[in-house]
Design a protein that fits this description.
This protein is an alpha+beta fold and 72 residues long. The chain has two helices and four strands. The protein has a four-stranded mixed β-sheet with strand order 1-2-4-3, covered by helices on one side.
């Protein structure tokens, strides 16, 4: 299952906090797609993904980041 989390316009630490909350009820194999404008979001989410064994793909789009966390 893929879930979209739009946190564009929110500043650190809100994108990370909202992503953690969304991951709480996701199962292995699910993906959380996060749209963020905060330049710290890719760094924060990469650290969280590494800490919890998830995989993160980051792509810069025109005016925001598209960050996909694959739940392991």
């Amino acid at each position: 299952m893929e879930r979209l989390l739009d946190v564009r316009g929110l500043s650190c630490p809100l994108p990370l906090a909202k992503a953690r909350l969304a991951l709480g009820d996701m199962a292995p194999g699910d993906a959380l797609v996060i749209l963020a404008t905060d330049p710290e979001a890719p760094i924060d989410l990469a650290a969280m993904a590494a800490d919890h064994g998830h995989r993160l793909e980051a792509k810069r789009e025109q005016d925001h980041w598209r960050l996909t966390l694959m739940v392991q």
